[in-house]
């Protein structure tokens, strides 16, 4: 490592240490730790399972879940988005209750959050607009461009769902305060009914409602954690046991697959749309992690681990949004270098042997994006407050656009070979809600 790189690393750590030193004693550092570790687990899982390879002179974009069925069990560890929704419930509960105490309006509270959530994703989409249009102009096949942008933009499905959850916080929090765990139970029942309609009545389109029921249910558990109802090893492990029994029954007796992420070619997915198996896994994960909260909080009271958490959380949304762009561009670079590293057959010994090399390559490719675009999730300022109806409308437009882009990428049959309707929805929604990634 050269001297300038060492100095940059030192400066980044020192800035994080300075912020860490200002942490109030009342802050639950474990919340921040779980936010960071859950996103890092998703990133590592995506990188580990990606299995592009060259066969017959053609690039094949596949996943290890297709090649070796035993790897599907690994999704129980790396599919940790339920943990992020748990953390979201805890944080949103504190934030919204604090806003109420200060007499802050819903519009002011929501506008800051939309800026923080939607602002960082717009530069990512702009880059892929440029890449997709430029690649097609240079003669690359539209189908290849579509697949590349689909791969890179998979993470934005989470934002499409989470922004809706944030918009509904006043309602979900009021439901928790009035009904407690009954509000969680109602959502669980709705998810069960939705799955029954999906499987028994073959109403597949109704299944998409579980994006709301499943993730709002996990979000309610965040409120429960905040109010002390899931604290301690005894309570946490009780949730683990209950969730495990249900989960095992669903995948052995019920029609649910083992994998907690979509497997190409598999008819039923636990995530697209989410099923109650995903909710059961979330309960297991949340219970397990909350059962070890006391010792983890003692560990996080130390300077070095807490500084590391502060450092990662300072760019966590950027890491999440850009990690598949980094790996996708790495594939492209390998193809330009005579398919280096892409000739091993997925699942073979040589393929697994070079996994660590690829992980390092992805990490190095991600660093410039994390350092360069991390500023878009910091320094949020709101100079004027828009009316609530406008913010909610803009948020729903953004979410619709992001959902379409997550499913199909940016390439299409429109102007410059782009999916103009999905892009217009996203950027029109951002403008309507006053979201500007350049705002300081």
Strand order of the largest sheet: 1-2
Q: What portion of residues is helical?
A: 55-70%
Q: In what range is the share of β-strand residues?
A: under 5%
Poorly predicted spans? 1-8
**Which outline best applies?**
globular
User: How many beta-strand elements?
Assistant: 2
Class derived from helix and strand content: mainly alpha
Elements, N to C (H/E): HHEEHHHHHHHHHHHHHHHHHHH
Integer-rounded radius of gyration? 22 Å
End-to-end CA span:
33 Å
Describe the structure.
The protein has 440 residues and is an all-alpha fold. The chain has one domain. Helices cover 69% and strands 1% of the residues. It contains 21 helices and two strands.
Features:
two-stranded antiparallel ribbon, 2 strands, 440 residues, mainly alpha
Provide a compact summary of the structure:
The protein is mostly helical. Helix content is 69%, strand content 1%. Strand 1 (53-55) and strand 2 form a beta hairpin.
SSE layout and pairing:
Elements: H1 3-21, H2 29-49, E1 53-55, E2 58-60, H3 64-67, H4 75-78, H5 81-101, H6 106-118, H7 121-137, H8 142-152, H9 156-167, H10 169-179, H11 181-199, H12 210-226, H13 233-252, H14 276-291, H15 293-300, H16 303-313, H17 316-336, H18 349-353, H19 355-373, H20 388-408, H21 420-432
Antiparallel strand pairs: 1-2
């Amino acid at each position: 490592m050269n001297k300038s790189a060492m100095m940059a690393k030192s400066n980044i750590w020192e800035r994080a240490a300075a912020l860490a030193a200002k942490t109030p004693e009342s802050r639950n550092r474990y919340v921040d730790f779980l936010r960071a570790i859950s996103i890092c687990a998703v990133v590592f899982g995506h990188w580990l399972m990606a299995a592009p390879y060259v066969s017959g002179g053609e690039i094949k974009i596949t996943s290890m879940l297709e090649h070796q069925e035993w790897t599907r069990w690994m999704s129980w560890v790396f599919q940790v988005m339920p943990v992020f929704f748990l953390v979201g419930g805890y944080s949103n509960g504190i934030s919204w209750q604090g806003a109420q105490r200060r007499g802050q309006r819903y519009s002011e509270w929501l506008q800051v959050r939309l800026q923080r959530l939607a602002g960082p994703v717009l530069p990512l989409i702009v880059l892929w607009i440029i890449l997709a249009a430029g690649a097609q102009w240079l003669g690359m096949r539209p189908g290849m461009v579509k697949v590349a942008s689909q791969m890179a933009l998979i993470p934005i499905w989470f934002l499409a769902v989470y922004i809706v959850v944030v918009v509904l916080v006043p309602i979900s929090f009021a439901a928790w305060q009035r009904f407690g765990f009954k509000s969680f139970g109602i959502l669980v029942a709705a998810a069960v009914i939705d799955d029954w309609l999906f499987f028994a009545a073959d109403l597949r389109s109704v299944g998409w409602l579980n994006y709301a029921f499943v993730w709002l249910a996990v979000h309610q558990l965040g409120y429960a954690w905040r109010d002390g109802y899931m604290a301690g090893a005894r309570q946490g492990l009780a949730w683990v046991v209950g969730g495990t029994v249900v989960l095992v029954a669903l995948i052995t007796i019920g029609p649910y697959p083992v994998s907690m992420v979509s497997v190409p070619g598999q008819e039923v997915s636990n995530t697209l749309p989410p099923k109650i198996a995903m909710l059961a896994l979330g309960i297991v994960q949340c219970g397990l992690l909350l059962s070890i909260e006391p010792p983890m909080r003692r560990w996080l009271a130390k300077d070095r681990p807490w500084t590391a958490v502060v450092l990662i959380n300072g760019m966590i949304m950027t890491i999440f949004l850009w990690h598949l762009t980094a790996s996708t561009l790495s594939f492209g670079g390998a193809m330009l270098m005579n398919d280096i590293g892409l000739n091993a057959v997925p699942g073979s010994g040589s393929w697994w042997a070079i996994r660590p090399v690829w992980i390092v390559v992805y990490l190095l490719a991600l660093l410039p994006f994390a350092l360069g675009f991390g500023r878009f999730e910091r320094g949020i300022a709101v100079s004027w407050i828009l009316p609530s109806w406008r913010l909610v409308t803009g948020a729903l437009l953004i979410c619709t656009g992001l959902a379409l882009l997550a499913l199909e990428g940016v390439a299409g049959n429109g102007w410059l070979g782009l999916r103009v309707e999905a892009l217009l929805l996203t950027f029109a929604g951002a403008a309507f809600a006053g979201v500007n990634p350049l705002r300081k």
